[in-house]
Specification:
Helix content: 40-55%
Radius of gyration: 14 Å
Strand order of the largest sheet: 1-2-3-4-5
Order of helices and strands: EEHEHEHEH
Number of strands: 5
Strand content: 15-25%
Shape: globular
Structural class: alpha/beta
Distance between the termini: 42 Å
């Protein structure tokens, strides 16, 4: 487990069919599980309205413990089973974010076969891409 002073946090908001996460790492399983519980109502509201997309912007660190990655994998499975899956995922992290070069390939692998995933260094490019994915899904 990551010491409390170093643990990350995640906040979310919705804007025009996109679920935005502001994610400050590092992450452990406890954080991911708390996010699953806290943000499920947002996902249900979004899914009820049709296709939606997801953008996570990372701050400080992308590093995640093995139990965080396991919880994240379980989250994707739950999304798939319950019909709450976004149609596209964009992860944003500047080049200097701790663990970016290690974690982006891991996340790309986790999302493969799930729904389209792309990584970006700039938020504006990520948002434009998910909005284009939504436009083609309508």
């Amino acid at each position: 487990m990551i010491p409390n002073a170093q643990r990350g946090h995640i906040t979310a908001h919705i804007a025009d069919r996109v679920l935005f996460f502001e994610s400050t790492g590092p992450f452990d399983g406890e954080i991911v599980e708390a996010v699953i519980r806290a943000y499920r109502p947002l996902l249900e509201r979004l899914a009820d309205g049709g296709p939606f997309a997801h953008v996570s912007t990372f701050h400080r660190s992308m590093l995640a413990t093995p139990d965080a990655l396991e919880a994240f994998d379980q989250l994707l499975g739950e999304w798939r089973r319950s019909g709450l899956a976004p149609i596209a995922h964009a992860y944003v992290a500047a080049a200097d974010i701790e663990g970016r070069n290690v974690m982006m390939p891991i996340f790309a692998n986790v999302f493969s076969g799930f729904s389209p995933f792309r990584e970006f260094e700039r938020f504006e490019e990520a948002e434009a891409w998910v909005r284009q994915q939504l436009a083609t899904a309508d």
